[in-house]
Write a structure and sequence with these properties.
The structure holds 2 protein chains of 2 kinds. By secondary structure, chain A is an alpha/beta fold. Helix content of chain A is 40%, strand content 13%. The longest helix of chain B has 20 residues, at 95-114. By secondary structure, chain B is of the alpha/beta class. The radius of gyration of chain B is 21 Å and the shape is globular. The chains are: A alpha/beta, B alpha/beta.
């Protein structure tokens, strides 16, 4: 049997938008809560109090760094749960009080939002999906048309998970507040945390989702900020944890690690953005020189520092990713379905990218752990793989 | 061949699992690939998450890389769509043959070549051999009951030169024993028997959902109408059930006329034929000279019949049941596949 999982393969990892290695601070912070301080934080004894205290410290850290109060942070099992809780929970609660029946989202949201919206549709909600611009930004004119007095919830992500574009959330909020003052605004900030100050950028949103493993925390841990006691119907019923918004014993070790990772990310953010931005620019410029016909997806003026999303006409992304994997470069295309097969990216299609170009587009996502050597390797491997596949075509 | 870069098509079944294992143990540089052809998000049926997962886990156990190729658009275009259309035209298609032709030894082989692989391997029970003249041959699998050379009749020199079929030298029992010895999770997995994208009992509804029903008369060989049927897509040559006639002697479908939506029935004797017209022939090496003695096989695990090859035609030494248009007619010389075509 392979023991490769112990160290991981030693290729150039360019898939930080999928997941990041844990930051040492996070690993160090969570370790005591795996064995020593293991108790259920809901208990009444000294062991429980210790766990509870650590959990609440972590919650405060997360709240502070997200611009929220501690009581507004619900710990979830990741970004998908946070998105589901936000959309399903807020829409159901609004309908329960007779507020309205329509939900507005963007066609290029993460599947966790889109699938939750489809679920709401099956529950009788009217869902309006607005398109994105070719540059990868939410179409504000379409948003203004879609939002009206019947709207109970609007969900627009802060940073797109594929093309890395930062969305104009202030403008989105302005439209929502004007046209549907009672509507709840949710933003999926999962991809924003490593690159921008979410406390400031997501300030206009009522609900904010994050996921720990996108910024050096563990998988299976995330949070939803629920501002000001806004009613959200829980998805999980049980022992009333998280103020009745999310039942189940709280993942103390995960929450502690998430807080430590968030702190480390915030502390390093300015330096990371500068350093990784330079790496990304070197990669992009190099690819532009070495690969004929390279197309950049997403308006570069609005992209986060780690995002490099390119179309290579005539080169099937599925094949290119296999070729790159064999050359030790780990990248992604679109979103993967459960079987691992590639689908043309719904994000690119929502942006109006032709399906042929969408099938030839790959995401190279850099992160805090990226190094010069990763870019060197990518700049050697990608032209080689593209050349091989173009010769075969 | 040894030390080849081989892309093994791994379905998640025991045959392709063992194929990958044997090639790896023979010193090849093995990579696994599972094709997503159909469905895919459910946990049952073809290309299910559990089949892909089985393939992935076996590849991990063998310590070989594994990829999933999404060929569902091609599969719809070249296999599923034409399958439904053929029924509307009164033919009886063999979708596994089209999948082998266009997907496994078509799109997958192309992808493998583009990625720099030397060969594609599958878990088919058949043998690829190279003659002293350098020509490639396809021979029946050692396990006659499992032989799949019939559904590979279309492979020519170009494909065979890049194809490895390591399972063909083993019996099914040996394959399972090898899988058990290696502790592969697929060792006891049952075989799939149906067409992968539609279960036998759902076939009619599946076809009608796509092409609608073509009702019409059931006639006898004199041309007299003896019944009505609710759609020609229900019928294939040799079919006995569901004819809607209560005649004394058994009656069989002997012809389906799609143009007039007419089904012709007759006796068992009427079902026999002495010759089969073969269209769109493919030859492993070259067409056997007219007058050659061959054996003809007209179904996947059918008994071969002695015949003489004429141009575009085989003449049977003794009558056989009519072959439904659309079915494969494969020609053999003993264990060696010569090629074949589609029954007209």
């Amino acid at each position: 049997m392979s023991q490769g999982w112990q160290t991981g393969p030693d290729g150039a990892y360019l898939d930080h938008a999928a997941s990041t290695p844990m930051r040492p601070e996070a690993i160090e912070a969570m370790t005591p809560f795996l064995a020593g301080c293991f108790a259920n934080p809901s208990g009444g004894h000294a062991a429980a109090r210790a766990a509870k205290s650590a959990l609440e410290d972590a919650r405060e850290t997360v709240a502070t760094l997200l611009g929220a109060d501690a009581g507004e942070v619900v710990v979830t099992a990741g970004g998908t749960e946070a998105d589901n809780l936000a959309l399903l929970g807020a829409a159901r609660a609004a309908r329960a009080r007779g507020a309205g029946n329509s939900v507005v989202t963007c066609a290029f949201e993460h599947k966790a939002v889109l699938a939750a919206a489809e679920h709401l549709e099956r529950e009788g909600f009217s869902v309006r999906r607005i398109p994105a611009t070719r540059g990868g930004l939410v179409d504000l004119d379409a948003l203004a048309e879609a939002v009206d007095a019947s709207t109970v919830a609007v969900s627009v992500m802060l940073v797109n998970n594929e093309v890395g574009t930062i969305q104009p959330l202030d403008d989105v909020a302005g439209i929502v507040r004007e046209r549907a003052p009672a509507a709840v605004l949710h933003t999926d900030a999962v991809q924003a945390v490593p690159w921008i100050d979410v406390a400031a950028a997501a300030a206009p949103a009522d609900l904010v989702s994050i996921s720990a493993h996108k910024f050096g925390g563990p998988k299976g841990t995330g949070a939803l900020v629920v501002r000001g006691g806004l009613p959200v119907e829980p998805l999980l019923e049980g022992g009333g944890q998280e103020r009745g918004r999310r039942a189940g014993t709280v993942n103390v070790a995960g929450a502690v690690a998430m807080a430590a990772a968030l702190r480390a990310t915030a502390d390093a953010r300015d330096a990371d953005v500068t350093r990784v931005g330079c790496l990304r620019d070197r990669l992009l410029v190099g690819l532009g020189d070495l690969v004929d016909g390279l197309v950049v997806n997403g308006d570069p003026r609005h992209k986060v520092a780690g995002s490099c999303h390119v179309g290579i006409p005539g080169v099937d992304a599925e094949l290119l990713l296999v070729a790159l994997d064999r050359l030790g470069v780990y990248a992604a295309a679109g979103s993967s379905c459960s079987s691992g097969a590639a689908e043309p990216s719904h994000v690119l299609l929502a942006m109006g990218v032709p399906v042929e170009l969408a099938r030839c587009s790959i995401r190279l996502s850099l992160g805090y752990a990226s190094k010069e050597v990763d870019v060197d390797r990518a700049l050697a491997a990608i032209p080689e793989a593209v050349g091989m596949l173009r010769r075969a075509a | 061949m040894s030390g080849c870069r081989v892309l093994v098509a791994m379905s998640g079944g025991v045959d392709s699992s063992v194929a990958a294992a044997l090639l790896r143990d023979a010193g090849h540089d093995v990579t696994g690939a599972t094709l997503r052809l159909w469905g895919g998000t459910t946990d049952s049926g073809c290309c299910s998450v559990s089949d892909v997962e089985d393939a992935r886990r076996v590849a991990a156990q063998l310590d070989v890389p594994h990829y999933v190729f999404n060929l569902s658009d091609e599969f719809e275009r070249v296999v599923v769509g034409p399958y439904a259309t053929a029924h509307a035209e009164g033919r009886t298609p063999n979708p596994c043959v089209e999948c082998n032709r266009s997907i496994k030894f078509g799109a997958l082989l192309e992808r493998a070549e583009a990625l720099g692989f030397d060969a594609v391997a599958t878990g088919h029970h058949a043998r690829v051999e190279q003659g002293a003249d350098g020509r490639w041959r396809l021979e029946r699998g050692v396990d006659r009951a499992k032989d799949q050379s019939y559904v590979l009749y279309m492979l020519g020199q170009r494909e065979l030169a890049r194809t490895l079929l390591p399972i063909g030298a083993l019996t099914k029992a040996q394959v399972r024993a090898e899988a058990s010895r290696l502790g592969l999770r697929t060792a006891e997995k049952p075989e799939s028997m149906d067409v992968c994208f539609v279960r036998r009992e759902d076939r009619l509804r599946f076809v009608r959902d796509r092409i609608g029903a073509r009702p019409g008369p059931v006639i006898d060989l004199q041309g007299d109408v003896v019944a009505r049927h609710d759609g020609i897509e229900r019928f294939t040559i040799g079919q006995r059930r569901g004819l809607g006639v209560a005649a004394g002697a058994p009656r069989y479908v002997v012809a389906v006329d799609a143009g007039r939506a007419t089904v012709t029935i007759g006796s068992a004797a009427d079902l026999l034929c002495n010759r089969v017209e073969v269209r769109d022939p493919r030859w492993v090496v070259s067409a056997p000279p007219p007058g050659s003695r061959v054996q003809v096989q007209t179904r996947a695990h059918g008994v071969p019949s002695d015949a003489v090859h004429r141009d575009g035609m085989v003449e049977l030494a003794a009558p056989i049941r009519r072959v439904a248009p659309g079915q494969v007619v494969a020609l053999y010389d003993g264990d060696v596949l010569l090629g074949g075509g589609i029954a007209a």
